[in-house]
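We modelled the chain as a single entity of 368 amino acids. Its sequence is:
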Amino acid sequence: MAAAPLPGLSAGAVADLVRRAWLGRRGADALDVRAVSDAAAVPYATSGVQGMLGATTQVDVPGAAGRRFAWVGADRVVLDYTRSPAAPAGTAGTAAIGRDLAWAARRRPREIVAVLSSFAAIGDLGAGMVGSLSGRPLPRSWTPGLPLPSDMAGRIAAARRVLRPSHLTVFTGGPQRLLGPTGLARAWTRRGMAPALAQEMERALGEASAAMAAASADADAQTGGDLLGAEDLVRGPYAGAGGGAAFGLRIVGARVLPVREAVAVALEGWASQADLCLYVSGAVGESPPGGLDAAVACAARRAVPLVLVCDSASLQRSELARLGLNGVYEIRPGRAFDDAPETPATAAGMAGALTDAVARVAGTWGWE
């Protein structure tokens, strides 16, 4: 069993509930339950990447606007920026990310990990992060479409130096391109952005990303590196993650990876002795959960059936085989089509609903 966070429940809490619910129906079964992450925004819970990477000590990030936390451990610092997008065209500034990274770098860990939602409000492409990390903040009024400061290359070079010798890794739930038919502006049109505004946003993002890629190339000459060509930076499959923050993080030297790579490590040997694999995740919409691919691969290698238990799903039965699933059970059936927001009261009912759903699976898939 692999357990990702659910509304109001950490991955560890989900794992404990799943274990108890299954054993309540089939007490003699041997279980291997592991906490994983989909690198998704989960109401009233973190993404779960922290625990999966062994960074379990929560600390305050000093000087943060409001109260923000980091997780430390195993020579890592993990910063979690997964959150539900509130609005499409807000200039979601990333200056706070730069300040967080500077604080994390002063701890001199081997690795700094940032976690981004694959889909988020469109932001400043990490320009604000570069400014605050370098110690030369950009004007708060800067947005994509306005000219970059003339010394942007110097800011990028300085930001890269601040991060050394730590390695910067970004995990995101799945692909989100920056531009084009599958880019951020087009993704927001499917969620109600006016076509005219989307067209203007695409133009602004194109101009800003080209200017930042050019500044990155100039910074390469200053730092003696050659990270990626401008085309690779702009057209990469994860450049639009976090509303475009991944693009800026890549410019300062980050590896940007799908969370399934971390989940694959966490699930090593997971299905080796199994008769059935169970993956628990949040709501499933247009795309499968970020860590599910790793679970599918593990189960397929051992020819073991895999069942998905999710908060809610808009999947049709015909899609199960395509996703490598042998069954889907919803914890809160129909919620995928309910526009009501998650509240503390609704999240409080998740533990009981999860217990009932897992008991149903145990009764359906268990055998003697």
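As a brief sanity check on the tokenised model: The first strand starts at residue 2 and ends at 3. DSSP finds 14 helices and eleven strands in the chain.
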